[in-house]
Amino acid sequence: MKRNRRAKIVATLGPATNSAAEIERLFETGADVFRLNFSHGAHAEHKARLDAIRAAEKKFDRPIAVLADLQGPKLRVGTMAEGGALLEQGQAFRLDLDDATGDSTRAPLPHPEIFAALKEGTELLLDDGKIRLRVTEAGDGFAETVVEAGGRLSDRKGVNVPKAVLPLGAMTDKDRRDLDFALSIGVDWVALSFVQRPEDVAEARKIIQGRAAVLSKLEKPAAIDRLDEIITLSDAIMVARGDLGVELPPEDVPSLQKHIVRKCREAGKPVVVATQMLESMISSPAPTRAEASDVATAIYDGADAVMLSAETAAGEYPFEAVAIMARIIARVERDEAYRAIMETSHPDPEHTAPDAITAAARQVAETIGAAVIVTYTTSGSTTLRAARERPVVPILCLTESTETARRLVLAWGVHGVITRDVRNFSDMIDKACRIALSEELAHKGDRLVVTAGVPFGTPGATNILRIAWVGD
Fold first, then answer.
1. Is the pTM of this model over 0.70?
2. May I ask the CATH class of domain 353-469?
3. Per-residue pLDDT tens for 153-179?
4. Which of 127, 194, 202, 261 would give a disulfide with 72, using CB separation of 3.0 to 4.6 Å?
5. What are the residue boundaries of the structural domains of the chain, listed by start?
6. Which residues are tagged catalytic?
7. Distances, alpha carbon 180 to alpha carbons 23, 215, 331, in Å
8. Which of 332, 389, 383 is nearest to 364 (CA)?
């Protein structure tokens, strides 16, 4: 089952896409990676979904990636009297640790760590920025504020502190329990929410110990200040525009998205653009023109993948959302302007033999009109280098590691096949031609560009480039 596009689609599972039949249909329609959102649902529900994904993987004989998205330290006010209260511009409003029900003068904020980071002048955003407060006084367990933008504050609404680095790790006790469970059922990727500093990623990697790849979600402006370090420590990055858009001026988000995507491409790390991509399709069978343009922009930027959240988890048109997203991606990738952008934005190769070989593979493939670039990989590094080049042709990844094949599903242009490692050069060429033919990535008479490492099976040792001809 090959796709007619290079960028991938991440689909979130939920009440609207819960059954094995619905998950199969999502995959057939175009979903490549399935997201299990641990902010919602019981462990048993997530296990059932993962089992259905693995059954689909076996049925279609294609590696499928599963992403466990941890909730992270989501900050919320407590309960309010009568479900909510109206805050008016200019009034005083208090936040404190008292868990008594809130009203129009105060609200409980059961996060003592927040108060330690507050000072006079700090801005607080409530309910996704709809309500804006300015701190006038802060102390041990309380903050006095003035309401700068009012509105109705109801139970459990979120709180954002845009310009402060909060003394919080990226994982709560709930996240640690969820992470243990996610690893026990065999997810391929773990997404860390609200990463603020590289230490957050290092802490998670220490716990995960290579059992899954780590994707860092950039939702806090503080993370942007240490972007290079976070990218270095992560296996992939997500531009999570929801909270990022709350904590930054809206006009800053598009340019920041481009900056993050460019940095990830330079580092050879997959990057996902997420949040509100086709949001109107939660209740509408077609997206707005602006949403279609938004998806297209992410692809023009060079993103490896784009993500659907509530559109597929709880929306009325989950399959239509995946289908239109796939069509938008395919249309952009046929555009001459897209190819021109990819050609002019190649990151400079590092001064290593693997980078030199991979850069040459793209150039050779374009020069001879090859049908596909074939990469043999153990760890995935060879294939990620090839994806970083954004070649005109697909990338056929051959690996004997099921885990590697699944993780690489997230990467741009990669079509993974699980197969035994090769023994010699003759075996290498024969297997590359045979699988390219059977996977319908090449036809008889086509040429292939093959990269591998000698000794065979050595991780990261790409040092061979061969041109092969697909014969009988």
1. yes
2. alpha beta
3. 998 898 988 877 788 887 999 999 999
4. 194
5. 8-72+170-337, 81-160, 353-469
6. 35, 76, 217, 275
7. 24, 16, 40
8. 389
